[in-house]
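Exercise 7. Predict the structure of Amino acid/amide ABC transporter ATP-binding protein 1 (HAAT family) from Rhizobium loti.
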Amino acid sequence: MMPLLTTKGLSRNFGGLRAVDGVDFALMPGEIRAVIGPNGAGKTTFVSLVSGRIQPSSGMIVFDGADITGLPAYIRVRQGIAYTFQITSVFANLSAYDNVALPVQRTLSDGRSKGAVRTGVMAALERTGLADRAHMPAGQLSYGHQRLLEVAMGLALKPRLLILDEPTQGLADSEIDNFITLVREIAKNATVLLIEHNMPVVMQLADRITVFNAGKILAEDTPEAIRENAAVQEAYLGTAP
Ligand SMILES: Nc1ncnc2c1ncn2[C@@H]1O[C@H](COP(=O)(O)OP(=O)(O)OP(=O)(O)O)[C@@H](O)[C@H]1O
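Solution. The predicted structure, encoded as tokens:
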């Protein structure tokens, strides 16, 4: 099987800082991969490079066998890479429905077909448990529901690769359980790359975990092996074994 995504020597400098430093990475189709690491390790910068939100200083990104390194973000979206931002990106004055309608319209060759838009929007809202809040202004949803709305917006793009950046931040424990179920559902049709600080969520969801530290991959393994890894414990959990 071919990887869905690979990076080779991927680097990004901010002034003198190498935020992402020569990262070789591969993601297999259908996988749920968690990316963890201390604050400032380069996780968000890495996924921003993959989504095309920022450009690399050097290195290469290959998606589904094609070099996408130079492609703008909107083309990558069309090719199936969806990225939900760390910072809430919903339009507060638009309803939940209209927020999701925006990405649905982008996936339709005739974005004005009302029936098709409605079907796509309601499918995404139902999967995220937001269907009964479709007509609420997004700004009036709880913070946790706004995060789920972002996931719905990502899902509406029917991505092959869904990148979630700290999706459980601000979710209540009961909502986290639903979220775990949702990600497993999503992974039946898509590959998931998940930046997540909540370790129980990571341990339950991830097939494999990639640990970033100081812009580099420190370790990559199964959840069980990562839990036992001394270097990871030192760098990430701040405790010597
Ligand atoms: N636009 C930018 N300009 C300058 N420095 C930046 C920029 N974006 C990120 N950095 C720096 O790059 C490093 C990596 O940041 P990044 O946000 O990728 O880390 P992270 O692992 O996602 O951290 P966190 O877990 O806190 O979100 C940090 O030192 C950060 O300050």
